[in-house]
Structures are given as C-alpha cells and as structure tokens.
Specification:
By secondary structure, the chain is mostly helical. The protein has one domain (4-53, 63-107). It is 38% helix and 6% strand. A two-stranded antiparallel sheet has the order 1-2.
C-alpha cells in the first residue's frame, strides 16, 4: 500500500527495486491520484518549509514568508502552491497532462 512516507521518499528521488515493492505491498501498483500526491507533498512542505530536502547549514537563512524551494530561489504563498510547482516543473506531472507516469506508477 502506498503510504505518505513512501510517496514522499519517491518524490525526493528514492527508487524502490521490484523486490522492495513486492515486500512493501506495492506490487501490482495501483494508480496514484494526483490530488493525493499534491496534498502529500504540500503536507511535507508545511512541516519542513523546504522540499525535496532541507538546505545545509551553509545555505543562507530563508526570508520570512511562505514555503520556499530547496535552493531558496522561489517563494510561494502556500505549501499547496509550492507542491503544484514541484509536481509540474520538477516531476513533470500536471493536471492537464494526466495520466502521467512517475517511477513506474500511473498518476491519474
């Protein structure tokens, strides 16, 4: 079963081998709903303010305001807006391009 934790790991670039997918009950792989994917990433951004990873201690501190992407180059008004941007521009998954493929899963 696809959990929020697994979905976040995938969004951060983790790949699960076929034996891992079978062991975790992720095979056969059912489609993933775009809205669920969006909310999962938005939730992670709300918790950390950064996605896919938190910047290192050497990075400049973020400005006040909404969530920021990992490079600090872009400020968003909400975690949902940041998640929409990440899905579309980093993972190439957007509502107008559904169904889409993501590491072997179909996003609908």
């Amino acid at each position: 079963m696809m959990t929020e934790q697994i979905a976040i790991q995938l969004a951060r670039g983790r790949h699960f081998s076929m034996p891992e997918r079978i062991e975790m009950g992720l095979w056969p792989r059912p489609p993933i709903a775009y809205e669920w994917r969006l909310e999962t990433i938005a939730s992670a951004i709300e918790r950390t303010r950064f996605f896919p990873t938190k910047p290192s201690e050497n990075d400049p501190p973020p400005e006040t305001g909404g969530p920021r992407d990992v490079q600090g180059e872009r400020t968003f008004s909400s975690a949902r807006e940041a998640a929409e941007w990440y899905l579309e521009w980093q993972l190439r998954i957007a509502p107008e391009r559904l169904p889409a493929r993501f590491d072997g899963w179909t996003v609908v």
